[in-house]
Amino acid sequence: MTVPQSNGVSKSLPSALPLVQKLSKDHDNVLKTFRLLIADLCQQFGGGHPGGAIGMAAIGVSLWKYIMRYAPHTPNFFNRDRFVLSNGHTCLFQYSFLHLTGYEAMTFDQLKSYHSDRADALCPGHPEIEHEGIEVTTGPLGQGIANAVGLAMATKNLATTYNRPGYDVVSNHTWCMIGDACLQEGVALEAISLAGHFRLNNLTVIYDNNQVTCDGSVDLTNTEDVNAKMRASGWDVIDVEDGCYDIEGIVGALEQARNAQEKPTFINVKTIIGLDSHVAGTATAHGAAFGPQSVANLKTLYGFNPEEHFVIGDAVRKFFQDLPARGEQWVQEWNQLVSDYTVKHPELGAEFQARVRGELPANWEQHIPSSFPEKPTASRASSGLVFNPIAKEINTFMVGTADLSPSVNMIWPGKVDFQHPDLRTTCGINGDYSGRYIHYGIREHAMCAISNGLAAYSPNTIIPVTSTFFMFYLYAAPAVRMGALQNLQGIHVATHDSIGMGEDGPTHQPIELAALYRAMPNILYIRPGDSEEVAGAWMAAINAKKAPTIISTSRQALPQLKQTRRDGVARGAYVLEEDEFATVTLLGVGAELSFALDVAAQLRAQKGITARVISFPCQRLFEQQSLEYRRETLRRHRGIPAIVIEPYAPNGWERYADAGINVNRFGHSLPSKAAYKFFGYEIDALTTKVVRYLDQLNGDEYLRHEFVDL
Amino acid sequence: MTVPQSNGVSKSLPSALPLVQKLSKDHDNVLKTFRLLIADLCQQFGGGHPGGAIGMAAIGVSLWKYIMRYAPHTPNFFNRDRFVLSNGHTCLFQYSFLHLTGYEAMTFDQLKSYHSDRADALCPGHPEIEHEGIEVTTGPLGQGIANAVGLAMATKNLATTYNRPGYDVVSNHTWCMIGDACLQEGVALEAISLAGHFRLNNLTVIYDNNQVTCDGSVDLTNTEDVNAKMRASGWDVIDVEDGCYDIEGIVGALEQARNAQEKPTFINVKTIIGLDSHVAGTATAHGAAFGPQSVANLKTLYGFNPEEHFVIGDAVRKFFQDLPARGEQWVQEWNQLVSDYTVKHPELGAEFQARVRGELPANWEQHIPSSFPEKPTASRASSGLVFNPIAKEINTFMVGTADLSPSVNMIWPGKVDFQHPDLRTTCGINGDYSGRYIHYGIREHAMCAISNGLAAYSPNTIIPVTSTFFMFYLYAAPAVRMGALQNLQGIHVATHDSIGMGEDGPTHQPIELAALYRAMPNILYIRPGDSEEVAGAWMAAINAKKAPTIISTSRQALPQLKQTRRDGVARGAYVLEEDEFATVTLLGVGAELSFALDVAAQLRAQKGITARVISFPCQRLFEQQSLEYRRETLRRHRGIPAIVIEPYAPNGWERYADAGINVNRFGHSLPSKAAYKFFGYEIDALTTKVVRYLDQLNGDEYLRHEFVDL
C-alpha cells in the first residue's frame, strides 16, 4: 500500500494482518506469559505497577511484533519508529517487550533486577532515555504525549526538508501510549490541541482506557466524552472494544492510524487493569504487587505451574525471535537508501548526514556579529541580533514562542512557519512542515515539553529554541526540568526578566524563579548584561550539547558596557574592573550589571572607596571553573567583602557574597524606572547601602559571619 | 422566576430584559464613551492593552448594569456575585466599570493614573485582589478561570452546608471572562474539565472570541472546534454573534446561564478587538496604544470632540448612578436574611457567621494528638494523624488530592466527597456539594489554582488543603505562587519528598524544588522531621492566615525523636542537642533530621568530637525570629562551623551553614535505603565527611570564607 503523506512522503508498508491471523494461535500463550512475567516481577519486589502493564499486553504484542519498525540490535537506527510510554509508571510493559524483542542490554538478569538495589539497573521506576530502546524519560504524567508530538514534528520537518522523490530518508511514525491520567494533565491537553492543529498524521496515541486511577474509578473526577473532545481537537478516533485480547482488532486500528491522511489518530482501547487477578478492574491493581497467593492463583488459572517464576517458554521466545533480524534488514535498507540519496543529491546528502550525526556547520559562530551598536539596547533585542542570523542559515534550529512573537525578537528575515501546508490556503499562513518557526500558542508548558521531543529525536539533530517571558518558564518548569534530566540540548529565551519588566506587575515580575533554575541540575541559567554578553550567552548555550540553557534577557534598554566580554560569560563570572587595593567587590548581574559599575564609580568619586566589579551572568558555569579561578575572581579569602546587586530573592548568592541588595518580597506594578526606584535600585540609594554596610562591618564583628540583606 | 438548583438552593431573580429594552437608546453613547475612555487611558500611558477592553464593552455593560449582583459601596458583601477577569491584561475593562458603577476607591483620578509612576495606584497592569472590587489577582493566563471554578465550588459547598428552606444565605453566581489564550493554557483546560464533571451550574464563562492573540490570528495555532470541545467537557454552550453591540442578546445569554440547571455555561461571544480603530481585528490592537491620531479619528467617528480626553458625559454617569443604591438594598436584604436565619437556626447561624468572619472554632488545636506512637512513622502518615481529626470536625477545611488518595493519607473517617449529588446514583459515589474531600484528578496545577479560588471566596471562610507528591508541586507552582502573591491561606501537603521516596526515580525525586519554595515570598516551606514536628508544621500552617504553607513529608518511615518539639517548628529552627563546648553545629532537616542526630552521636562516640544539633524545618519562619535568637541558635559568630545535611540542592543553605552535605545532581531510581546509600547518606559516610571537613578547616584558612560542598 502506498500512503501519500501531506508532507510529500510516501511509504509502502505491507499490512501485518495476514501474519496476525497466521500466528493467532500463539497469542494466548504469549499474553499469558507476559502477564505472569509482570506479576512475578512486581511480586519479587513487593511493589511496582503491575495492573496497567498487564492490561496493555495485547497492545504491546501488536506494536512490537506487528506494527513498529525498529531494530533491537541497532537501537538508535535513525529512521526507527519512536515509541513513547507516556504512562511511564507502567515501565515494566516496555522493559519486558525490550527483553522479549531482543534488545541486547535488556538481559533477563537486568529485567529481573526491576526495583532492586543495584545502581546500574536498566529497569528504573520510570523509563529513562539513557537506556537502549527508550526514546524519552517519562513519569511525570502528560510529558510523554507532548514529547511524542515533538517527535512527530521532528519527523515532519526532517522529512519535508530532506526527502526527495524516491528517497524518503525520514519516514518514521511516532506511537504513544497514554493512560487516563495523561488525558487530565494540562500539558497533555495543550499538546493534543496543537497536534490536531498541525494535523500530525504521523502520530498515533493509544489510550489504555481502563477507567481506573489511583483514587478509583475515573468517574470520580472525569465524566467527559473523551472521543468527542479528541475529534473537536482535530483528531481521528478509532475505538477498540476488547483491548485485552483482540490483537487483530488492535493491529487493524494501528494500521489505519499509520495510514492516516490528514490527522493524528487517537485509538481508544478498552482494557482491564490487572486483568484476571483478584484485583482486576480496581485501583488496587495500579500500584502494588498482587500478593503471592494471587500471583499463584493467576498462574493456576492460566495453566502455569504456580511454583515457577519468571517463565518464558520456548514458544514465546520463538514468537519474538525474528525481530532483530527484521530490524537489521530495515537498517541495511535505510543505509543503502541514504547512500544512494547522497549520490543523487550530494550536497543535501552531506547536510543530512551531518544532521544525523548531530553536527552543526563548522562556521556557525561566524554568523554572530563581532560588535554591536553602542546605543542602549534591550537584551531581548540583542538576543535577536545574535541568534537570528544563525537561525536563518542553519536548519538545525527550530524556534518557537508561546504567542509572544512581537516581544521576543526571534523572527529572522524570511522565516517560514512550521504548519500544515494547507493552512496557506485556508488561513493565509506562510508555512509548511519545512518551516522552523513554531507558533506554540499560549501553551508554555507544552512548548517546552514538545521541544524535548524535538531534541530527543536524535542527539543534536534538532536544537529546539523556545521563547516567552521569564516568569512563564514557571509554567513550563516541569518540562524544562525533564530536558535537563535527559541531557537534552534546548535553548530557552526568557525575556522580560526582573522587576525592570515594569508595569505588568508582580504576576509577571520574577523574584524567586532564578533560584529554581540556579538550583536545578544540568541547566545553565544565564543573565547577560549587554549585547556582548548576550553573544557569550548564545555561544555557551549552543556549545552545551548535553544540557538546556535559559538565556534571561531584559524588556528594557540596557547601556552597552565597554568592559564586557563574550568569552567572560563562558566562565560564569569574570572581573570587569580590577583594583589590587579595593575594599569591596560588587557583583553585578544581567539587566542590573551597569548598576554595579555605576555604584563603583560613585563610591570612588564621592566616597573615596575603591570597588572591584565582577560580572556574574551564570553561577553554574562559574562552578565549573577551577578553584583558583573562582577564588581569584571573588577574592573573599583576602578579606574583601562581596556585595551582590540583583533584584531577585537572594537565595544562592550567599555562596558568593557577604551581603546582597536583593528583593525579598513580590514585585510591584510600576513602569520600569519607577519599579527600580520603588525597590531602591537607584545609584544613590545603592551607594548609600554599600557605604553603610562597610561602616557596619567595622563595628560589628558578627556581620562577618553572616550574609546581610542590605 | 424560581430556579431550583441541584444543591437545593432556589433563587428568584427577575429578568433584566425589559430594562435592557427600556434603556436601549442609551447604549450607543455608553459604549462609545467607554471605548474612548479606554483609548484615552492607553494613549496617555503610551501602552497598555486597549483592544480587548474595547471589544468587550457591551459584555461589561451587560454584566455590571443588568446581570451581576454586587454592591459598589460594600465591595465585600458576602453574597455578591463574583467576577473574574481571567484575561487580566484587559484590566482597564474592569477598572473602568468599577469607576462607572461607583466603587469609591476607584476615583476618576485613580483610573487616570493607570500605569503611572504613583506607587499607590489602584490600576496595576493586572487586577490585584488587594483592591476594591477585585476578586482575584489575574494575569498569568488560565489562572483566573481555574480560580472561578474554585469560587463556584465555594458557593456550592457553603450553600449546601448552610442554606435552609427559605434561607438561601449563600446564592451568588460566578462570572468569568476569558480570551482566546485561556482556552489554550493547560491549567484552564484542566479546570474546565473538572467544572464540567462537577456540573457547576453556578459558573458562567464568557469567551471574548476575537480570534486574535499577540502572534496574530488564532488560526496560527488553534483550529479546534471550541464549542464542541466545551460540550464534550460537560458544558452548555450559547453563541452570541454580535458581541460588540447586542446587549440584549448578551443579557439574554447571561440570564440563560444564570438559570442553568445542570451544567456550567460557556457563552461564546464574537467580538472585534480594537473595534472601530484603525487596527481593529488585528494583533496590533492587543498590546499597544492606538496612537494620538487614531484616537482622535475614533472620537470623530463617534461624534466626540477629538480635542477632549477622558470624557464621561452626564448621561453616561446617570446610566450607572443607581447601582450603588441597588447594591446596598441587596446588602440590607441579605443582612436581614442572615439575621432571621440565625433566629430560626441559632447554632447553624452562629457557625455560618463565624465562617463569614473567617474564624476557626477556638478549640481547633485540641484535635491534635498530644503525643504520637513511638514506632517509626512516615511523616505523610503523621500528617494524617495530626490533620484528619481537625478536618473531620471543622467544616472550614476543604481537602483535595490530585489522584493520590492512597498515598497522602488525607482521608478522615466519614469523609464525604465534593460531587454533584446525582453521581451517587450513576457512579455510586458517596458525595454531594456539602462534601469537603475533592478528587481533583491528575490535575495538580488546576488543583492549586482552584484552591486559590476557594480561599479567595472570602478571607479564611474556607481553608483549602491540597495534596500530591512534592515533586508535582512543580506542576502546580504557578498557582502556588499566585496564592502566595494574594496572601491566600492554603495548605499544600507535599508527600514523598527527597531521594528517600525511592524507586520512582529522578523524575519523582525533588532535588531543586525546595530552593524555589524557600525563595518564593510569603510562603512557608516546612520539612518536619517526625510526628511531633508534623504537629508543629500543621499548627504553623493553620496559624498563617495570610500565606500558604507547604508541609513537606516523607514517603518512608522516620524514627520518632525524643528531642523534637512542636513549638520549635514555629521558630523555624531550634536546638535539639546543645553543648557549650561543641566544635561543630549540625543542621538537620525533615526526613533526614535523624541523620544529624546519629552523626552527632557517632562523632562523640568514635571521634571524641562534640556537635550541637539544630532542627531546621523552615527557613522563612527562622528569618522571622529576632537577630539574637538566630545568632544564638546558629552560633556561627562564635566560630563554630555549621554543616547542613539535606539531600537537596544546597542553594540557600549557604546563609546558615559553612558546609553542606547536599546533592548537586538529579536523583537515581533505587529503593529508599539504597538511594540514601548511593548518595552517601549513611551515618558512617556522613561522619567521615564531617571529620574530614573539620580537619581541612584547620589546614586551609580560605575554607572559612567559602561554603564547601562535602
From TrEMBL, chains A, B:
GO terms assigned for molecular function: metal ion binding; transketolase activity
Which InterPro entries would you find in this protein's record? THDP-binding, Transketo_C/PFOR_II, Transketolase-like_C_2, Transketolase-like_Pyr-bd, Transketolase_BS, Transketolase_CS, Transketolase_fam, Transketolase_N
Start and end residues of each Transketolase-like pyrimidine-binding domain: 377-560
Reaction(s) catalyzed by this protein?
Answer: D-sedoheptulose 7-phosphate + D-glyceraldehyde 3-phosphate = aldehydo-D-ribose 5-phosphate + D-xylulose 5-phosphate
User: What GO biological process term is on the record, naming one?
Assistant: pentose-phosphate shunt
- The UniProt record lists the EC number as 2.2.1.1
User: Signal: is it a keyword of this entry?
Assistant: no
Q: Which SMART domains does the entry link to?
A: Transket_pyr
> PROSITE patterns in the record, alphabetically?
TRANSKETOLASE_1, TRANSKETOLASE_2
Keywords for the protein's UniProt record, in alphabetical order: Magnesium, Metal-binding, Thiamine pyrophosphate, Transferase
For activity, the cofactor(s) needed are: Mg(2+); Co(2+); thiamine diphosphate
- Database matches in CDD domains: TPP_PYR_DXS_TK_like, TPP_TK
| Superkingdom classification of source | Eukaryota
Which Gene Ontology CC terms are recorded? cytosol; nucleus
Q: Which family does it belong to?
A: Belongs to the transketolase family.
Query: Which PANTHER family would you find in this protein's record?
Result: TRANSKETOLASE, TRANSKETOLASE-LIKE PYRIMIDINE-BINDING DOMAIN-CONTAINING PROTEIN-RELATED
Name by which UniProt lists this protein: transketolase
